Amino acid sequence: MARRNTKLLPSLGILLVAGGILLLLWFGWLWFNPGPAPYRYQLVTEGGIDQFPQLGLPADIDPALKLAQYEVYAEGVDQPLALTHTARLGDHPPVRLDWENHTSELLVTVDNKLSELAALSVAIAKHAPKDALILAWWDTSRQVNLLAGRDTLFTTRIGEPLIVPTPWLERTDAIKRYESEFWGAPAGEQERATFQRFADALLAPPETGAALLRELAGNREAYIAIHVNDLYKLGLMRPQFDITYKNFPMEGNMHGLIGYLKTWMQSNQFDTYTLQSISDKMVRAYFLHKGPNSESLIAQMLPFTESQPLELQALQLIYQQGGYWVYKIPAPGDGASGADLPEGT
């Protein structure tokens, strides 16, 4: 009996150690595999440009471009949460062209209209020199590169910021993994560092920010394209940029909306605002306090009530259409002069 116990005890020890290792491996697997994302992209239709005439894309873009329409569905919800179109060239990862959110809370990214992007791409392709460099948020950069055929400072998916609604915060890692799998691997460390410098430039005072943009562009002729919704994305990346938004219904006349908007702004102790058209029935207002944030380069580039984009000296406004504002970055040693793109409506 004693001999049997002597043999049994080492065996039990081995089993316990093995069980402990398996338990640690299981916990590790759960840590790196926190379950699926709470939503999915569901393909609706795909094909060539001629199958999507309703999108109004430039007629002279690469005919090899493949387009697709997706709806975004969540667990247990019958209706789509959002609608998006993508474009792909060859074996390259897809590029998101637009985002139409059907919920009251921002989801994954911010809304943008394909009609505005198409107009911007046409203007850049027609009037910007072929060797010009376009600086813009990473997603706008990929869109312009694909549709206008111009070099952009950012060419791969950086994925910042990722907007995760509060009920999904526990699945943030799963969402990041799903987004990377769907859109392709994110950018490398060097491009991410450059993007942080781009954000630094937007938050700096105008003269300092313009100098940083010129540093990023090098000696090439360069332009910067900014969209109003970049304000909120920048605020998520840099919390010190205290930007707030609120949606307002487009009902009645504009004077009534402006009055209600100013009342809300004053009651919440903000000092200045700018607007983005979301749809025919909805506008989004972005609010800032007076001080460094409202005096930053990006705030001065956009039509806040306390800014004058046409009088900005650090950069020169040369095009505006919808939510997009395009400026020429002065060459080294030059002032903000010259105009290559026509002003939009």
Summarize the structure.
This protein has 345 residues and is of the alpha+beta class.
List the helices and strands and how they pair.
Blueprint: H1 2-32, E1 39-47, E2 66-74, E3 82-88, E4 95-96, E5 100-101, H2 114-127, E6 133-136, H3 138-148, E7 151-152, H4 172-183, H5 189-203, H6 206-217, E8 222-227, H7 230-237, E9 244-249, H8 254-267, E10 272-279, E11 282-288, H9 297-301, E12 316-321, E13 324-329
Parallel strand pairs: 6-7, 6-8
Antiparallel strand pairs: 1-2, 2-3, 3-4, 3-5, 8-13, 9-11, 10-11, 12-13
Helix pairs in contact: 2-3, 5-6
Main beta-sheet strand count, sense and barrel state? 5 strands, antiparallel
Indicate the proportion of strand residues: 15-25%
Radius of gyration: 25 Å
Cα end-to-end separation: 95 Å
Uncertain residue ranges = 23-31
Mean pLDDT: 87
Structural class computed from helices and strand pairing:
alpha+beta
Number of strand segments: 13
- The 3D shape can be described as globular
Number of helices: 9
Provide the succession of SSEs. HEEEEEHEHEHHHEHEHEEHEE
What features would you describe in this structure?
It is built from nine helices and 13 strands. The chain is of the alpha+beta class and 345 residues long. Strands 1, 2, 3, 4 and 5 form a five-stranded antiparallel beta sheet that branches. It has a five-stranded mixed beta sheet with strand order 7-6-8-13-12. Strand 2 (66-74) and strand 3 (82-88) form a beta hairpin. The longest helix is centred in the N-terminal third of the chain and has 31 residues, at 2-32. The chain is globular. The relative contact order is 0.11.
